[in-house]
Amino acid sequence: MSTDVLIVGAGPTGLALGIDLARRGVDALVVERAGELFPGSRGKGIQPRTMEVFDDLGVLDAIHAAGGGYPVGMIWQDGQRVGEHRMFDPVEATEDSPYDEPWMVPQWRTQRILFDRLEELGGRVAFGLEATGIEQDANGVTVRLSAHGESSDGSASLRRGAGNCATSHDGPAAGNRPLAALPAVLRARYVVAADGGRSAVRRALGIGMTGETVDPNPTLVADARITGLDRDNWHIFPPRGEGDGFLAICPLAGTEDFQVTAQFPEGSSVDLSLEGVRKVVAARSHLAPEDVTEVRWASDFRPRAALADRFRDGRVFLAGDAAHIHSPAGGQGLNTSVQDAYNLGWKLGAVLRDGVDEALLETYEEERRPVAADMLGLSTSVHRGEVRRGEATRQLGLGYRESSLTAETRQAPAALRAGDRAPDGTLGGVRLFDAFRGPHWTLLAVGVEAPELPGPVGVVRGPAQESYGKGLFLVRPDGYVGWAGDTADGLPRYLARAGL
């Protein structure tokens, strides 16, 4: 069996990439080692830039419906409310940035929404399947697959998940429909490793990771049902004495659950059982053990920051946690990962479907690795209390000004430069995010005449406006300005390079 792209890992990164490729008509298969989608809440914050990405991928309405805003932190001491804590510096929505603050959606629900969208577009996910060997040649990648219960001919009998998230969260699994048996060896033109921080693909390629332990203290995170606390606040219980850790209990928007987070001294073992969670909640708050009525998912971790030494090896790309591991502070990990997929998806589509030179794929690492490095530094600084959550953590200021794919040709460019995120707004009566939505390029003619362009490029015309000033702006499929000019001089050369 062969496919254009094999995506290893059905987390937010792999599913978002699968959606982007499916809408471009690229044949892709997502394989996931686990037998179901991730069942926990861990990556619950969706930043404004990722909300814009989800708008383009067609899942924003579902994401809005599934979550809610972040509650105000309430600090407790000896059973009394003693003060409030604002998690984020306030930022008002503007016309060019319509999503002002992070949106809380438990990770399991985000993945379910992405999975449903992928199936809607005809995409495929095979659960219970692991990539155990990779060999490359000039034309493609041969991937050896293994699964539980192999047939006599060596093929793996797999299942297609029908949104099979954990039954504890979303009622009984929607049933598993049979997926045609896959061979033990699969051929792909490209492979994307989106298989997490312990990526088997990255290790098989021999790609190292450079990083540090952000905090040696182990941390418990659990989804639980709890009585005796309101759902209007994020409840914070500071350490009571030396050697104690903090406890935070956050209502998970769109569910009846709370996320319990508790830090322990270095070297401690973390009890993930119901009794273990009850014990730490009762010891650090005014709640009784029986107020924790159920633990629906639990895990422990030690915050770490690490960056892969490279994001590409021949025809194999690293994305998401396989390429960068973040502290959860500041909510940068899932968001940076989804944006990896958003950057890579259109480039793979251009090469595989539009015949663009493969050199375009070299810009993936060039653009995304510096961004990931910056976001790792930001996550670590937020974790250590050196930076507050605010403008930087919203990720709207990220861009690719230094990319070889960026061309700024104006004599006196304004604040908005080629390589920057293309703002929303209205031009000639058209909302720009509506014009950008879809797998195409868009030319904005702002206060100047628009040249004749190939069919695949959308064109929006209008007078000079505040966000863009005046000029021609060619917006990439991922919503960044690729080329900007006072006139169309140089635009044909750029379009030819992009395969348009």
Outline of the structure:
With 500 residues, this protein is of the alpha+beta class. The chain folds into three domains: 2-67 and 105-210 and 305-383, 3-Layer(bba) Sandwich (FAD/NAD(P)-binding domain), CATH 3.50.50.60; 68-99 and 216-302, D-Amino Acid Oxidase, Chain A, domain 2; 407-497, Glutaredoxin, CATH 3.40.30. 24% of the residues lie in helices and 29% in strands.
Beta-strand fraction estimate: 25-35%
Helix-strand makeup class: alpha+beta
Q: How many extended strands?
A: 30
**Distance, first to last CA:** 31 Å
Number of domains: 3
User: Low-confidence parts, pLDDT < 50 over ≥5 residues?
Assistant: 148-168, 171-179
The rounded Rg comes to 23 Å
CATH topology of the largest domain: FAD/NAD(P)-binding domain
Shape designation: globular
Question: How many individual helices?
Answer: 11
CATH class of the largest domain: Alpha Beta
Q: Estimate percent helicity.
A: 10-25%
Q: Architecture of the largest domain, CATH level 2?
A: 3-Layer(bba) Sandwich
GO molecular function, one term: oxidoreductase activity, acting on paired donors, with incorporation or reduction of molecular oxygen, NAD(P)H as one donor, and incorporation of one atom of oxygen
Keywords: FAD, Flavoprotein
Protein name: FAD-dependent oxidoreductase
Cofactor: FAD
